[in-house]
Amino acid sequence: MNLDFLGKLPAAVLWDMDGTIVDTEWAWGELSEDVVKAAGGVWGSEDTEFILGASTLDHANRLADAVERGGKPRPEPMEIFGELTELMAERAYPFVELLPGVRELLVAFREAGIAQALVTATPKDLVDIALESLGETYFNTVVTGSDDVPGKPDPGPYLLGARRLGVEAADCLVFEDSRAGLAAARASGADVVDVNDTPPAEFARRAGLL
């Protein structure tokens, strides 16, 4: 692996999950819409955009708001979010696969002795299903939406991930895709790879891995 184009080697690499290493954002959008419409609510593209990378509480409140917009009584946010996570546990996370280039990077960083953390807004029970589906262990620590830390776009999750690895966030490299996640990563002081502009496969090619 050749990372000369970065200018310096990161002390650690922090990875977002949904939309960055696995393709699950479609499921969050589609199944959120299904849950809301089943409750008589209204769901639009702006709602899907809002939830990507959002904290559990923000996502739950958005679901409840969408039901209320449809003229129905506002449900308890965490209750309707629980319905959504049950669907995600059944229909999405048991079937995840790494996006192109991700495995090559995860293995290369691991073999180079660079610690890695998964930093995601997804609840821990769903993260556990995803990691079991992937099979191989890549991460030295995992920060999830179940941790007691402010959610993205607050930098808290990335600061916690760096702290658990024993490094400064400013010395880390972050891979992210969502608006909230990118804001969180940049606010942490880390170097950030926006995978919308530089997908993992392209980064892996630059590093000589593909």
From TrEMBL:
Gene3D superfamilies the record matches: HAD superfamily/HAD-like, Putative phosphatase, domain 2
The UniProt record lists the keyword 4Fe-4S: no
Leading EC class: hydrolase
Keywords linked to the UniProt accession: Hydrolase
InterPro entries in UniProt: HAD-like_sf, HAD-SF_hydro_IA, HAD_sf, PGP-like_dom2
GO MF terms, alphabetically ordered: hydrolase activity
EC number: 3.1.3.-
Superkingdom in the source lineage: Bacteria
Annotated NCBIfam families: HAD-SF-IA-v3
Protein name from the UniProt record: Phosphorylated carbohydrates phosphatase
Lineage: Bacteria, Bacillati, Actinomycetota, Actinomycetes, Actinomycetales
